[in-house]
Design goal:
With about 240 residues, this protein is an alpha/beta fold. It has 2 domains: about 40 residues, no CATH class; about 170 residues, Glycogen Phosphorylase B (Rossmann fold). The chain is built from 10 helices and 11 strands. It has an 8-stranded mixed beta sheet with strand order 7-6-8-5-4-9-10-11, with helices on both faces. A 3-stranded mixed beta sheet has the order 2-1-3, with no helix packed on it. The longest helix is centred in the middle third of the chain and has 14 residues. About 25% of the residues are buried.
Length: about 240
């Protein structure tokens, strides 16, 4: 349950009827993350299945094994996040080449949603970089960018398995971070937020404590300077 900025969910009247509960705060920095609090709700005589032996996982698409290179870093490009940083196509290219300087191969995807902006970026990625279409079992290489692979229309299930096979991941904090935690894959989280007033910093710290505390992942707060961005990340992903 939540102690929110404006109201608590559920309110104190209904909380009295609950057998057991933990509180996630939206007002103060949390000592434990949402995930850790859920674990604490388990009875003491219950053992947590750390290896997920009883969990039914989707089977891997065989095209992944035949198309995806080995020794790669996986990067998820989210256009809204990076548009706020005013990343140009040249900035994207510089960043991908920076990742390639750290790992033999770079495998990346973009938003699967289709709108004017996401379509523009998809066309740019397909024209400039080698690409892999897992759905249709296609691998198209461009000699100039032979070790940078764009994953065309990557599904969530396929991303789940590609993250598992990666050497490392880098992405905006979110679903990639949690899939990495599930697979025990190293991940570097990217953050970007506007600071208009002192309380904005505290708000971001509270959000981080709710979702990321205890994951022990490295992270960087990005600004609009690409050289500073690369310098911030350089020592974190080697």
């Amino acid at each position: 349950m939540y102690n929110g900025q404006k109201r608590d969910r559920p309110n104190n009247f209904f909380r009295r009827y609950l057998y057991k509960y933990k509180i996630v705060s939206r007002r103060d920095i949390n000592k434990y993350s949402y995930r850790q609090l859920q674990e604490q709700l388990l009875d003491k005589d219950k053992n947590l299945d750390e290896k997920y032996n009883n969990l039914s996982l989707p089977k891997i698409n065989p095209n992944i094994n035949s198309l995806i290179p080995k020794n790669y870093i996986f990067f998820q490009y989210r256009y809204k996040f990076f548009d706020e940083l005013n990343w140009s196509n040249d900035d994207i290219h510089m960043f991908l080449n920076f990742l390639k300087s750290k790992y033999k191969n770079v495998v990346f995807c973009s938003d699967i949603e289709k709108n004017k902006r996401s379509n523009e970026l998809r066309d740019f990625f397909l024209k400039r970089y080698s690409y892999i279409d897992i759905n249709n079992n296609i691998k198209n290489k461009i000699l100039e960018n032979n070790n940078i692979y764009y994953l065309k229309e990557l599904s969530g299930v396929d991303m789940f398995h590609i993250i598992k096979k990666s050497s490392m991941c880098i992405a905006k904090e979110g679903i990639v971070s949690h899939i990495c935690f599930f697979h025990k894959i190293k991940c570097h989280n990217l953050f970007n937020f506007k600071i208009d007033k002192p309380g904005d910093i505290r708000h971001q710290k509270i959000s981080y404590s709710e979702w990321c505390k205890g994951m022990n992942y490295s992270f960087s707060f990005l600004n609009k300077n690409m050289n500073k961005t690369i310098n911030k990340i350089k020592k974190q992903i080697g």
